[in-house]
Amino acid sequence: MTPQGQVGAPEQSWFKKNWMWLAGAGCAIPLMCCGATMVLGLVMDDGKTSPVRIGALPAARVDCGTPGPDGVDCDVKRTEGTAALEACWDLEITCNNGGVMSGHACGELGDGEGSTVTNMPVADFSNQDGCDAPRSGAVKNLSVTQR
Known about the structure:
Blueprint: H1 14-44, E1 59-64, E2 72-80, E3 85-95, E4 100-109, E5 115-120, E6 134-146
Antiparallel strand pairs: 1-2, 2-5, 3-4, 3-6
């Protein structure tokens, strides 16, 4: 009789030998990436992302009414901040005949004041002779400065 080779278990595949390492790495790598991103986000957060800003610079909007015999009343409203401010603007009034009248005005708000009305007298508008009747108006070149 010839000796026969010992029949052993068949050799295992690479996956069967290393599945535990592969599964561990498959979970650990994404967790490390997420953790690194979170740490980087916390390090880069400067704490100034809050929408409420204390001591914000003042801001305002100006809404002007319909022109009348005494001129145009413009409402200056605070939109941000609490410090005293001065708002200056140009008002361009387009007329039915295509002419344009323009005037300049400024209004002031004290500390904490919410709004004020500023009158733009008729005499302050340019090109009055070139306008038959006002059709529309637009506030332009608004600038707001802290006082």
